[in-house]
Amino acid sequence: MRLISLRFRHVGPFGEDGIALEGLTSGLNVICETNEFGKSTVLKALETFLFKPFSSSDKQVKSLMTGGSEFGPEGEIKFEAGGEAYDLKKRFMKGKLCELRSGSGQVLAVNREAEERLAHLLSPEGHEKGPSGLLWVRQGDSMVGVSDDGQVASRLEGELTTLVGGDRAREYLTRVEADLAENITGTGREKSNGPLKLARDALAATQSALADAKAKRETTYETGLKLAKTRDDIQRMEDGFDAAESAVEIKATRDAMTAAQAFETDLQRLQAERDRAAQMASRAGEQQAAHIEALTDFIRWQAEITALETAQKERVKLLEQKTEMKTALRSDIEALDTQAAEYGQARQAAEEAANLKLRLETAGRDTAYLTAVDENYRNLSSRLAALDMQLADMPIVKRADIHPLERLADALRRVEAEIAALTTHLYLDLASSGAGKITLDGKALTSGPIELSGSQTLDIEGIGRLRGDNNRLQVLERELKEADKAFAAQLDVLGVADVATARQVADERHDLETERQRITADMTSLAPQGEAAMRTELETARRLAEDLSEKLADIDLVEARPADGEDDIRRELTSARGRLDALNGEIAELRETQAAAKAKLDGLRNNLTALRLSDTEAERTTQADEFAAAVLKTASEARLAEKAVAAAQSNAPTQSLTLLQSRLTRLEQIAAQTQSNLQDLQRREASLRANRDAAFEGQDADAKVEALVAKLELEQAELDRLERRVAAQTLLRDTLLASQSKLREAYTEPVRAELAPLLAMVLPGTEANLNESLGADTVSRGGRIEDIGQLSGGTREQIAILTRLAFARLLKRGGADAPVILDDALVYADDRRRDDMFDVLNHVSSGENGLQLIYLSCHQGATQRLGGHRITPENWPKD
């Protein structure tokens, strides 16, 4: 298959305008666009339209839709296959359609039939995605190794088929494995229900039957003796047991049990009524006792509450007295403290003055340093404000905005140049009578040169209308308006008149912003915590110096007082503080006692509330009377129920129900055991008689044993024959598998031979070692074998791409030509390796047997060195 052109609409970012890739050559095609243009979307769309049924609406199809669009993906793919040109049109979701046309436009098939014909064209061998599954490298998968899915191997085997290594060998292997599968499993064990297992089981059964026959022949002679003894036992048991008498005795016992059960039921009912009455009497007594206990607690707790409340009032008065004593004692201590402080003031004054002088000197140095920092910071801040004003007065144009603006300008110039090349140039020479009779878009013309574009109309009065018939020119004029509008809009957004001004403004803004960053960094180094923190630190240093100066000036060097007077004051002060501590302890103890009493009062009050007794004495007395009456009533009912139970028990049966049940169980067990023993003896008699009469079905015992010996010899011979057959088939299967392994080694050689010169162009001295799937898993270089996973990302990427190219060349020679598509596939290569890979791509895509390559990239600079045919994406024009 060779692609000719691709058109898609309502796919990813392309929306209603769509995208068209026209003029794809049979060699190297290069598509280079920026990130997020949609290159990978084009590859995803190509795969979806070729291999997804038009009726599909799965996740892959939905993910291809343009966001917010109500239309499904639509596409047209022109391609060649088998030397014939085809045109595929497909639409998903809304208005779904699949149509396959010939190169001349004839409809070949539609919908499901078109899908089937397309699948056959893309992959006659039936592989799911044809050669594309091997040869397309999607973005991000360039390092993923490739392995054959059977397409390459199947074509190579067609050239290498032999008796022991090709189709015939596989046919023999299949037949041998099928025969073996009848007798053994995949793990080598004998298969259940297989001929070998059945023969072995039959032999074992005959061996068992022979042993059984021999044993029966020995035991038949003893059977007659056992039969006579069994008949004697049956006769003695029948004479010693009367079944009719046993049945009468069992029935009488059952009648007595029925009467006893009725008595037990009545007695249980009366006892239940007695127990219920006793429970009610007990409950009434308990309720009365609980009420009496609650009354007792009520009276006791009321007395305790009264006593506690009285004690609380006395403690409050005592606490007030102690508090007044504490206040007076504190006043005495404060007076003594003042006298002691006056004695110590004279000693401390000189020491404090010396300390203040040292601190004042340090504060002066700090203030001078911080003042210099502040001045420098203010200068930088002024420069920063000036830069901000300059930046605010400039248009907001950054260097990153220049490239998109230049692209819009280039697009505008390209359209203008193409219009200029297509515009019709005329010269109008009017006679005097023709003045005003010729107009261009409603404007009268005079003699002189004129230009007639595709959308303009030349009206000639009385004759008709002359207009351009160049559709391309009309399209270009629309594109010119759109390009001019987009360019003017971008200039307006940036606030500049042209590209040169924008470039100049961007450079100036960049220089100013760089200067601003430097100043900001200097200011940050001067004031890491910010300007406010720096100013606060300076003000703090100044205030500290002023405070220290004032304190130094205010120090009054008081004359020292006699030391003995200070000692008397301090002893008296210590005594007073001791008395204060004792008084504080007494007050704390009183408060703790008071708090404990309050907690106890609260608990007693809660207890009274929980009793739920009436507040009045009369109501509590009424409640006590009601409980006493209930006790008397329930006690009377309990005595009456007890008398009824005693009366019933006086009429109890002479034999208890338990005794009757035991007697019935004994009688029934005797009858059942006797009957069971008799039946066992009768069955034993019948069995012995049958064994004696039919042990060998009327045949001679010795003849039966001899027949089984002959059968055993035949079955042993059949088992030996099957074991020899299975051994021969196993040897043949192993031999054929070894031949298949040699064949795989033979058909990896063409792939290795095709890959070797390509590897030599990029990785000289490197040889790829292929696995059974024809993928490279190790490489040999410098006398060492290295695992593919240990190589650098760039080297793995290059080997994966070169392997795909080798596959593509083998498939093309085998008649399965398919394009190789690489989407940003050389992202890990260095400059030299990338150039080498570019040489390989040009090499394999040139010549009579060259491959069709489509190279997608976002790297303009790198792809300039690739060469090939450049494809410029365009909108898909509507019909």
Number of helical regions: 19
**How would a textbook summarize the main sheet?**
6 strands, antiparallel
Kindly state the number of beta strands.
20
Give the overall silhouette. flat
Q: What is the straight-line distance between the termini?
A: 27 Å
Side-by-side strand order of the widest sheet: 2-1-4-5-6-7
Unreliable stretches, pLDDT < 50, 5 or more residues? 155-165
Q: Using the CA coordinates, give the radius of gyration.
A: 58 Å
Helix content: 55-70%
Strand content: 5-15%
Secondary structure category = alpha+beta
- Average pLDDT taken over every residue: 81
Structural description of this entry:
With 879 residues, the chain is an alpha+beta fold. 66% of the residues lie in helices and 10% in strands. It has helices at residues 39-51, 59-64, 111-122, 132-135, 151-160, 167-183, 195-239, 243-393, 399-422, 471-494, 499-526, 531-554, 563-611, 617-649, 657-694, 701-762, 793-813, 831-844, 860-863; strands at residues 2-9, 19-21, 28-32, 74-81, 84-91, 97-102, 107-110, 136-137, 424-428, 438-440, 443-444, 448-452, 457-460, 464-467, 767-770, 776-781, 784-787, 820-823, 853-857, 869-870. The protein has a 6-stranded antiparallel beta sheet, with helices on one face. Strands 8-18-19-3-20 form a 5-stranded parallel beta sheet, with helices on both faces. The chain has a 4-stranded antiparallel beta sheet with strand order 11-10-13-14, with no helix packed on it. Strand 18, helix 18 (831-844) and strand 19 (853-857) form a beta-alpha-beta unit. Helix 8 packs antiparallel against helix 14 (617-649). The longest helix has 151 residues, at 243-393.
